[in-house]
Amino acid sequence: MSYARPMLDTYPHPDDLDADVLAATIDALSDCIQACDADTAADLSEQSVAEMIRCIRLCLDCIDVCTATAGVLSRQTAYDPIVTRPLLEACIAICRSCGDECERHARHHAHCRICAEACRRCEQACRDLLHILS
Any idea what the CATH number is for the domain that residue 81 is in? Predict the structure, then answer.
C-alpha cells in the first residue's frame, strides 16, 4: 500500500497540483529508489562485477536524485518552481541514463530488467508532473 495519496489528502492547505499525478510521482520515485538499491546489491553479487560498475554508479546516482526529489515533493509546502522543476528534470535525466544502462544488461540479469522498468516508470511520472507544473 502506498501512503503518498492518503498523506496528500490530509494536508490542511491543499495545493493546486493534481493530487493523483503528484502521488503517482512520489510512488514512482519510491519504487525507483527501492529497485535501484536492490539492483545495486544484485550487481555487486554478480561474478562479472567489473562489467556492472557503470550500472552500479548510475543506480547510486539515481537513488540520490530520486530521494531528494521525493523529499521535496512529499513536504507539501508551497511548490517553488525554481526548485521543483530542476529536480524533476534531473530525475528524468538520471532515470533515462540508469534505465538505458540497466536495459543493456536486462537479457542476462532479471534484476536489471526490473530496475530498468522502474526507472522508465519514474522518468514518465516525473515528465507528467513537470508537464502540469509548466
Answer: 1.20.1270.360
